[in-house]
Design goal:
By secondary structure, this protein is mainly beta. It has a single domain, classed as Lipopolysaccharide (LPS) transport protein A like domain (lipopolysaccharide transport protein A fold), CATH 2.60.450.10. Strands 1, 2, 3, 4, 5, 6, 7, 8, 9 and 10 form a ten-stranded antiparallel β-sheet that branches.
Length: 184
């Protein structure tokens, strides 16, 4: 197999980073696109191991995975990239697991698992989801971003199974700062 699937997989992952690194104040804007992100910038990655499973059409990157592209940074224990080879390599899905942390500047998104379904254009973070931007914080069990509609939702569920949650309450909680207003 050529290096192309591996490079494309990592480039797609880096593009995913920009979409995932949203803040509570900018859900819709970030879900609609990577404003200002250079998705053509070089993708740098390090890991303890990379395994190309050509017959299974996937690449597994494991052990202290770090992916960087143009100011976007992802860390995870493991990342699996599924692709098809119909002429050109097409990335279908990217799964990152094991304390997934995505940062862009001061914005941070955390979760146990992150899944990017490129065909459905859905990004899902599951398990102990935390979004931080400065003093603004949002926590929940699941974040779902629909890149087609630009709609993002956070709920208390930690899986697709109804009723499953990361905490006893299964609720979303957050803290948002309010800018000081002057009265005239």
């Amino acid at each position: 197999m050529t290096r192309a699937p591996v490079a494309l997989a990592l480039m797609s992952c880096a593009a995913t980073l920009g979409v995932l690194s949203l803040s509570p104040a900018s859900f819709s804007a970030r879900a609609q696109g990577l404003k200002g992100h250079d998705s053509n910038a070089p993708v740098n990655f390090t890991a303890d191991r990379i395994e190309v499973q050509d017959r299974a059409d996937r690449v597994v990157v494991s052990g202290n995975v770090i992916v960087d592209q143009a100011g976007l940074h992802l860390t995870a224990a493991r990342m699996t990239v599924a692709y098809t080879k119909a002429g050109n390599v097409q990335i279908n899905r990217i799964d990152a697991s094991g304390n997934v942390v995505v940062t862009r500047g001061a914005d941070t998104a955390r979760g146990n698992v992150a899944i990017y379904d490129l065909n459905k254009r859905l990004i899902t973070m599951l398990g102990n989801v935390q979004l931080n931007q400065g003093a603004n914080h949002l926590t929940g069990g699941r974040l779902v971003m629909d890149l087609n509609s630009g709609r993002s939702t956070v709920d208390g569920r930690s899986s697709a199974t109804p009723g499953a949650s990361t905490s006893g309450s299964g609720r979303v909680s957050g803290t948002f700062t309010v800018p000081q207003r002057t009265t005239k």
